[in-house]
Amino acid sequence: MATRTANRTPMAWQASLAEMKAHGTRLAQCCTAPGCGHWNPLNVDAMIAKHGGAWAAWGRRPACVSCGKLGHYMASPGPSTPFRPLLPGPAAEAARKIFLKSFGFTRRDVARIRAHAERVAEGERATGLQDLDVPYRVQAIPPGEETRSSGEYLGEWAGQALLFWRLTEPEVRVWKARPRAVKRV
Ligand SMILES: [Zn+2]
C-alpha cells in the first residue's frame, strides 16, 4: 500500500501543544514494536501542564511506556477522525511499514485491498472487505469522507484513505467460518 509523501513540516493542528489545544487535536503515543502495539491516549491539557504550550510532539520518538522501544506520537484533527503519525517524511514511511507489517496481511489481502480502493476511486460504492486472511475489516473511503468514519487510518491507495476496524467477537466467528477458496500465500 502506498503512503502519502508525508509532510516535512507539521500542519497547524499537528504543531505545538498550544496549537493542538486551539484546534481540538486528539493526541496519543503509539508503539510499532512487533508484539507490542501499545496505544496511550494523551490529554493535551495535561501535556501543556507538563511541557508548556510551545512543546511539539512532531518528529519525537518517545520510549514506549509498555516495552521501552522507541515509538512515536499520533494525532487526529478531531472526533472520529483517523489518527496520523506525527513524523516527517522518511521516519513516517519507516513507521508506516512496521505498522502495516503488524497486521499480517497476506499478499492476497494486499492485492484485494488495492483492487477495492481502485473500485472506490472509480466511484463504486463498494462495501468494506470483511473476509481478509486477518481479522480486520478494511474499507477505502473517498478523500474528505474519512472524517465521518469510526475507522482507524491504515494508509492510502489510488487516492483513497484506507481505514481499518478490528472485527468484533461475533464478526470473528463469522470470519472463522468464511469460505476460503484460495490458499494462503
Ligand atoms: Zn511498546
What does it look like?
The protein has helices at residues 17-23, 44-51, 89-101, 107-121, 169-176, and strands spanning 26-30, 39-42, 72-76, 84-85, 136-141, 152-157, 160-166. The protein is an alpha+beta fold and 185 residues long. The strands form 2 sheets. A 4-stranded antiparallel beta sheet has the order 2-1-3-4. A 3-stranded antiparallel beta sheet has the order 5-7-6, covered by helices on one side. It is globular, with a radius of gyration of 17 Å. The model is unreliable at 1-6 (pLDDT under 50). Zinc ion binds next to loops. Residues 31, 33, 36, 38, 64, 66-67, 69 line the site of zinc ion.
Write a concise keyword list for the protein shown above.
185 residues; alpha+beta; four-stranded antiparallel β-sheet; three-stranded antiparallel β-sheet
Task: Offer a concise description of the structure.
With 185 residues, this protein is α+β, with helices and mostly antiparallel strands.
Provide the succession of SSEs.
HEEHEEHHEEEH
What strand order characterises the main sheet? 2-1-3-4
Number of distinct beta strands: 7
Which structural class do the helices and strands define? alpha+beta
Alpha carbon gap, first and last residue: 17 Å
Give average pLDDT, whole number: 85
Q: What proportion strand?
A: 15-25%
- Described by the principal axes of the CA atoms, the overall outline is globular
* Number of distinct helices: 5
In this structure, how is the largest beta sheet organized? 4 strands, antiparallel
> In angstroms, what is the radius of gyration?
17 Å
Q: Which ligands, by name, code or SMILES, are bound?
A: zinc ion
> How much helix is in the residues?
25-40%
**Low-confidence parts lasting 5 or more residues at pLDDT below 50?**
1-6
